[in-house]
Each structure stands twice: as C-alpha cells, then as structure tokens.
User: Fold these one by one.
Assistant:
Number 1:
Amino acid sequence: MAIANDLRRGNAIKFNGAVCVVMETGHVKPGKGPAYIQAKLRNLSTGKSSDNRFNSSESVEIVPMTTRKLEFSYMDGDDYVLVDPDTYEQENVTAEIMAEVKDFMTENTPLTATYVDGTLAMVELPANVVLTVSDAPEGVKGDSASNVMKPITLETGVVIQAPLFIKTGEKIKVDVKNRKYLERAGE
C-alpha cells in the first residue's frame, strides 16, 4: 500500500472497486484546512474520467503495470492500428484511448503503451515530435517586433503558434504536452 501523496501520472490504482489510471495529479494546500491531492482518474472498465480528492496520507492500492514500445501504423475505420516494431504484432486501439496523442501522430510515430492487468490503459508520445508545416501564412510587413507569433497548421491538421519566419513545407519540433513550437528541425 502507498499513500495518496505518492501518486504520479501513469500510476494505476484500485479506486471504488475498479482499476483506474492517474491522468493528472496536483498537491493542493488551501489556506484553511488540511492539504489534499487532486487527481484526475480514468476508469479502465468504463473509460470515463473523473476528478477526485484524496487526503495526503490516505492509503491507495497501486496496481502493477507493464509498458511496450509501439508505433502508429494506420487507421482502420475509427480504430488506430499500432504495431510492435520488433515482432510486427498489431493491436487495434479505440479513438478514446488515443484522444490525447492523435493531434501529433503521423505514420511510424513511436509510442509508449501502458498496460494494466493486460488491458491497454494509456498511450504516450515522446516529449517532442518533428512535424511538417502544411500551411503557414506570410507575415505582414512591419510585423517584426520581437517574439511575434502566427498560427500555422501542421500535417496532422492541428494549429499551433509559431514565429513569423516559419514557412510552409518546413519541419519543426513541437512540444507535445504544451502544444508549442520549439525549434526548426534539422534535415
């Protein structure tokens, strides 16, 4: 048994009789009253997410997990087909599980799949990915003050903010978690 203060993103716990994956955690110290842990949990059997509070010293039962390296291969209807690059074993995954990562995935994107009790619980991308800019409007003349950003569209269809000098067709590195431009990617 662990305590709620030890919960981290990606842990699996038994909560209300079901196995849940911790999606986010935060330590909250209100001005009045005891500190608590605010955690967003996703129930593996129903797929629903909920926000829950735990007393900092409350006991929680952590469930063992395993991880595998997979790659995104292609879409099969609404399902995403992931492939193990070593064994070429395929696995169909629902759009619900892929919701957090789909905006930054292209063919052969490496992923980390986390399994709890043999069930796929969560899929994560690397911290940053390289994507091609599919549409970048020209900067307006005179719009060259420092740190001026413009909206650009990436090859996956997602729109992010990038500096004025980024042009259509360039490859850029994107911070997946913050959905931000990092730098131009070298060829």
Number 2:
Amino acid sequence: MPKKTYFLPILLLGLFLYAPFSIATGPSPQAQLQATIDRILATLNVASKSDIVKKKQILMAIDQRFDYRAISRRTLATNWKKLNNAQRSRFVTAFSSLLKAAYYNKLKAYSGERVRIVSEKVEAKRAIIDTEVVSASQNIPIRYRMRLKNDQWLIYDVNVEGVSLVRNYRSSYRSIIDHEGFEGLMVRMEKKLASLQEQDAH
C-alpha cells in the first residue's frame, strides 16, 4: 500500500499562476475549493457537535469535491480498460471508501492548522491549485488538480510534497494486480478498509 497518507489533503479534502485561458463565468476552482475547505474547518471547530455528526458532514463535503471515478480510472491506468463495468464500479466504491476512511482518521489529528491559497492556474476545463497547510512548525505544500464537470470543479489528483496520490497508488496497485490479479487487490483493499474502520471506532 502507499507509504504516505495525509489528513491534510482532505482539507481540500487545501492551499493554490496567471491563467491566460480561464473560464469567464461561474465559480472559480479556487472559490469552490476554498468553500469546501472552509466548510470542513468550520465543522472541525464546532465543539458542540458529536463526532458522528462531524464525520457525516465532513464526508459529505469531501464527496462533493472529489471525482472518485476519475481518480480510480487514473490510478488503475491500463488495468482500468481490462475491467468490466461491474468490476469498475466495485473498485470505485472500495477505493473511495478507503480514501475517505484514511483521510478522516488523519483529520482527527487536526490541531488548528491553516490553509493558505498560493496560486491558481486555469486552462479551459482543467485547473491547478497550489496551496500550503500552515502549522506552528512547518508549511506543507499541496497541489490540487481539478476538472470542470457540470459547473463543478472536482479534484482528480492531490500532490503532497511532490508525491502524487494517483501515481503513488498506481504503482502499488499495479504491482498487486500483476502478482495477485484484480481479486487479490480487492481482498487487500477490503482488509485495509476494515482496519481503518476499526481504528475509527476507537
């Protein structure tokens, strides 16, 4: 499995150059991402809400900003083409659940970090938002790659300190599929998800 998993990308799950070809109308990717970040941080900072309510609201915010199918397709790369529709749906469901569980567990370590937008580059229906997560001890650069879909800017990759989520999982999952097949990968993912859910329960 990938070596790095951060709670920070989930803060969007984030902080973002001059765009010669930009979308003239509608909310910008930066604005939509910022709205999601603000929503998540606001939820985390409300002490009166139960953990169950906070988790539900945070995961809803994440679901609205991530394109899980695009992330899944890019992660499996050539292996995606070898799957039938049922297998693709199964992978997307498992992968999205795994990502959300991993990120939410990391989010529980939140201790007042701030998210600063650095720059935004928009070309047609693609955007790159560079951000920084600012804490007392360090600044962590995070880059979001987004695409416009039905008036919504959705994340299809997150790069933390130079490590791409998609490339990181792609390398790991390709190796597993090569040696254990698609079913072997699904078994591993389901075991990992169960472990993360168990951590969440404690």
Number 3:
Amino acid sequence: MAQPQSMICKGCWQNLRFPIALRGPLSVPFRVVGLRPSRMNPNICTLCELMFKRAMKATKITIDATILFADLRAYTQLSQSMSPNDMGGLLDIFYDECAGAIWEHDGLLNKTIGDAVMAVFNFPIQQVDHARKAVLTARAIQQRIATRKAELGLDFGVGIGIHCGEVSFGEFGRSHRDLTAIGTVVNTAARLQGAAAPGEILATDAVRERVGELMQGSAGQSYTLKGFDTPIMLYRS
C-alpha cells in the first residue's frame, strides 16, 4: 500500500522552519533551483541530504542515530532456479517493501547493497525515539515480506540487525563521494544482520534499553560475531 506523501519537506521544516514544497504547483520554483524529493526519502528534499554541509558548514558530523541493515536471504539459491528477470523482480519487491517501511517511520534509506539495504534513523528528520522507530520498521519489513512471500509462493526471508549510538555521517571519498554513516555502530549492525536467521530481527542491548516496553521480556543470547574479540549479547525483537 502506498504511503501518504508530505507536501513539504519534513527535514527543512523541522530544522529550518522553512516550507520547501515537494509536490504540487508550489514545488515548481524549488525544482527549478534543483530542490526535489530525495531518493533516500521522498518526504525530504535534496537539500536535506546535505543539511550538515549547508547549514552546519561541515563535511562530516557526529550524530546519535540508529542503524538498520536488512538482507534478503535465499537469494543465491533462488537465482539458480529463476530467470535473471524474475530475480530482478524479486529484488525490486524487497527494495520496495523495505523502502515503504523505512519511509513510513521517517527513516533514511541510505544504501542498497546487492541484496541488502541500510537505513539511518534520526537524520535529517530528528527523532527522540529513533531506536523505537527502527524496531517498528524492522517488524513492518518482516510483516510486508511475509505477505509477499505468501503471494509469490517462494521460499525466502529477511534477516535484520539494529544497533544505535554515535556515528559519523557525511560525504566520504574523493574520486567517488558517498553520503553515508560509518563507525562501530554501523559495523555492528551489519554483523547483527549477518547473524540473524530468515524472519529474525536481532538488536543490541543499547537498542533494547531505549525502546522500553517494545522489547520487554525479550531474552538475550550470547553471539560470537565475525570481527569481535568477545561474545555480544543480542535480543530478538
């Protein structure tokens, strides 16, 4: 189901109290100067993608954020029995369902990496409860994928990992500039996604502490993740 789209940029209104029109006749002057809906979230504009650079006069900033990674499982196995065109269609479904869930909770679909996606919560739309938003997004992704899986009659799933804390967000690289978040929090979320089983959401203790009753009663389990010297306690959402 298509999500309602904002008529003005949520990020610019929240951060600058300036109404940049994204849709309708009033958006035309803004489009002339290059301001249009962002591909990372259609409810923010292209100015928001570089808000840190334009408004904060910095190429990189440190922010408190929640990072979500979701990975399509059984993609390699399915590719052996499906045509490239059908596999492309499955990937489109995965991207679309992830995007819908992420944007519904005001997250930023920062990257699509092969058969995985990376989302950032708390930039540029600031969210006091960004960890909660990420967990709700993860659950929505699993629900959406379960529905599509039943419709298609295919055996696939999604593994999701979530972590929160300080990340460095900005433009990285010289010959090829990449707008993204980096740091231990990002790396940890990626490892959690790799450890999650199809249909499973794994979150760190830092996430569990922030979301309160949303993960109340979730039992922790010790995991040994690739690249980590000591086991880490993770929780299923």
Number 4:
Amino acid sequence: MNKRRFGIIGEKIAQDYLRRNGYEILKTNFYTRKGEIDIIATINNTIVFVEVKTRTNLKYGTPAMAVRDTKLKHIKSTAKIFLKLNNLYKYEIRFDVIEILIKDGKCFINHIKKII
C-alpha cells in the first residue's frame, strides 16, 4: 500500500474516533498555499485543528515526533486562514495530533491535545 493511501486510512480512523468522542467534523484536508490541515473539528465551543500521523512501527520514534516546528508553523498559518474565511473568531482554538499505530491487524490511537 502506498504512503498516501495509508495516510488516508489513518485520517478516516481519526475522524471516526473524533465523532465517537463527541466532536463534529467541520472540514477535512483543508488546503491553502500556506499548508494543509488534516481535520478541523469542533467540541465545546473549541475549534480543534488536527494533524494525523499514521505508522506501522516506532522505528523512527512516535508519530507525533514527525510534527516538527516547520509543520507547526504551516498548521498555524493555515488555521488563521480557515478562521478568517469562515469568520470564526468567537471560539477557543486548539491544535492536536492524533497518532495512529496500525500493527498486527490492531489499531492503537493516541490523541495528544494542545500541541502548540
């Protein structure tokens, strides 16, 4: 399976996880010239910008370790554009990472809240 298709599977798992936990999905794969956000959701008057990282092993560290400063900068810039385009200024903002590890037919999810 190619890397992009594997990532899409992880994003679908993350969306299902968020819905099961009371989040409403506002947008997926929001692209701008500044960057891309995998999932934009809302819960309890908070807009949550979610980066999803899916892996099959921890050989190179945890999935969240792949979200470095440059990626965080792009996520913040893209989030500002989304908020402005949709006039969403009355909400709290949060930036999360959802790590998904798929190994031996099992799926492990780790939701890391407020990464920034």
